């Protein structure tokens, strides 16, 4: 079998185009543009690129981008004061603090300081709780993007066996919650799981978010399964995912590439969440 390659770039472009059309309607109805504030602390080169791309995607969608670049030695107090100002600013519908933060800053305290109703990253514990109980909130962008890609392959996810490899708060756990909401049978495997292969080999869907280059081998995949690779690992051989793509593509039914798979969906979902936030704050129905 040779897998269908899931084109994340094309899906992301389609989502961003839909959001841009709805933003135009929102602006006409309310007389204002949705606003996204992005905060970058330090000079991590990859983070700088992501923040630049987020600003461009925000403007391309007809929204206002507020970019705050702070030096690497910024104190927690200064960062928390900025978050408080953004929480109070009516022009700001979404707030995002780019991760990772420098080691001297307590990232958890910063995420906790963001108003949950402006937390378009969906990282605040209130939004994690809302997701867990199926209440309206914000879903983290990467797992939301994975779900959208999966729904395109499987319009009916109910009853499918899904294995999420990795248990991070920003991908693995919310991904498992989303799949559970879709009535998948969900297993999370992680670094202490005894027989990762035994689980992935049974799965209709494998979502790899473990942060280890090419960790998932081709023979760990059930023939015909759908494989979503969240990994972005910079190696001597270039950018690779958490899945051995060449081998897995011979076995899977559908698979995301790296780059060009899940990554572009992360920014498209951020734009979507910001539009949804603006609609909620203005009491307008979000249409997507
Ligand atoms: N506050 C946040 N911080 C971080 C998040 C996040 O969602 N919120 N996610 C990642 C980084 N990230 C967005 O911030 C992100 C990562 C990758 C991509 C992407 O499009 N990747 C490309 C490859 C690009 C490259 O060469 O590096 C791809 O996969 O095709 C977009 C956004 C951590 N921090």
Mean pLDDT: 98
Task: State the share of residues found in helices, binned by percent.
Answer: 40-55%
State the total count of DSSP E strands. 11
Radius of gyration: 19 Å
Low-confidence stretches: none
Q: How many domains in all?
A: 2
The CATH architecture of the largest domain comes to 3-Layer(aba) Sandwich
Bound molecules: the ligand Nc1nc2c(c(=O)[nH]1)N[C@@H](CN(C=O)c1ccc(C(=O)N[C@@H](CCC(=O)O)C(=O)O)cc1)CN2
The share of residues in extended strands comes to 15-25%
Can you offer a commentary on this structure?
By secondary structure, the chain is of the alpha/beta class. The chain has 2 domains: 29-115, Rossmann fold; 141-263, Rossmann fold (3-Layer(aba) Sandwich), CATH 3.40.50.720. Helix content is 42%, strand content 16%. It has helices at 8-30, 45-60, 76-88, 107-113, 125-133, 141-153, 172-181, 196-200, 245-248, 262-282, and strands at residues 4-5, 35-41, 64-70, 94-97, 161-165, 185-189, 205-208, 226-229, 233-235, 238-240, 254-255. Strands 1-11-8-7-5-6 form a 6-stranded parallel beta sheet. Strands 3-2-4 form a 3-stranded parallel beta sheet, sandwiched between helices. It is globular and about 50 Å long. It starts with a strand and ends in a 6-residue tail after the last helix. Residues 46, 50, 96-99, 121, 141-142, 232, 239, 258-260, 263-264, 266-267 line the site of ligand LMY7XDAE.
Brief sketch in words of this structure:
This protein is α/β, with parallel strands linked by helices and 288 residues long. The chain has helices at residues 8-30, 45-60, 76-88, 107-113, 125-133, 141-153, 172-181, 196-200, 245-248, 262-282; strands spanning 4-5, 35-41, 64-70, 94-97, 161-165, 185-189, 205-208, 226-229, 233-235, 238-240, 254-255.
């Amino acid at each position: 079998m040779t897998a269908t390659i899931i084109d994340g770039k094309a899906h992301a472009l389609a989502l961003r185009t839909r959001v841009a059309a709805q933003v135009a309607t929102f602006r006409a109805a309310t007389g204002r543009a949705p606003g996204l504030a992005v905060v970058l602390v330090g000079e991590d080169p990859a983070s700088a690129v992501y923040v630049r791309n987020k600003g461009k995607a925000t403007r391309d969608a007809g929204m206002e981008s507020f970019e705050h670049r702070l030096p690497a030695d910024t104190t927690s107090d200064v960062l928390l004061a900025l978050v408080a100002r953004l929480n109070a600013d009516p022009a700001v519908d979404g707030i995002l603090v780019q991760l990772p933060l420098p080691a001297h800053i307590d990232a958890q305290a910063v995420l906790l300081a963001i108003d949950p109703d402006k937390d378009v990253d969906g990282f605040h514990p209130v939004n994690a709780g809302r997701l867990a109980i199926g209440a309206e909130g914000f879903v983290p962008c990467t797992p939301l993007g994975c779900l959208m890609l999966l729904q395109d392959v499987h319009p009916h996810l109910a009853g499918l066996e899904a294995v999420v490899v990795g248990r991070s708060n920003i991908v693995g756990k919310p991904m498992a919650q989303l799949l559970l909401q879709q009535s998948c049978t969900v297993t999370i495997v992680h670094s202490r799981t005894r027989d990762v292969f035994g689980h992935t080999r049974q799965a209709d869907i494998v979502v790899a978010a473990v942060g280890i280059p090419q960790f998932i081998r081709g023979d760990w995949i059930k023939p015909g399964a759908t494989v979503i690779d969240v990994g972005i690992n910079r190696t001597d051989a270039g950018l690779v995912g958490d899945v051995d793509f060449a081998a897995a593509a011979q076995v899977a039914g559908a698979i995301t590439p790296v780059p060009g798979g899940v990554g572009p969906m992360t920014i498209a979902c951020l734009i979507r969440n910001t539009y949804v936030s603006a609609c909620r704050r203005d009491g307008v129905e979000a249409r997507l």
